Amino acid sequence: MHVSQQGNTLVVTGAKPRHHVRLYQSNGVVIARQQADDSGQATFSLPYVGGVGLVSSDKETVKFTY
Question: What Å distances lie between residue 13 and 4, 48, 57, 60, 62, CA to CA?
Fold first, then answer.
């Protein structure tokens, strides 16, 4: 799974197609959740305040800064 940022959008690629992808704050609180599309991609709008976050899907978690 790969996480990249495009402006205020977080793009997750490489997730399993149709699996849930979750976006967490660094303290473990879920900010958003959605299902990856058929290509394994999911996009999230990022909060205006920067920081550290986590993206999780299936059994994989990726830490990122924004």
Answer: 8, 22, 11, 12, 11
CA-only gyration radius of the chain, Å = 11
Q: Is the pLDDT of residue 3 over 90?
A: yes
**Which tens digit of pLDDT belongs to each residue from 12-47?**
999 999 999 999 998 999 999 999 999 999 999 987
Measured at the CA of 6, the angle between CA 60 and CA 31, to 5 degrees, comes to 50
In whole angstroms, what is the distance from residue 27 CA to residue 21 CA?
A: 17
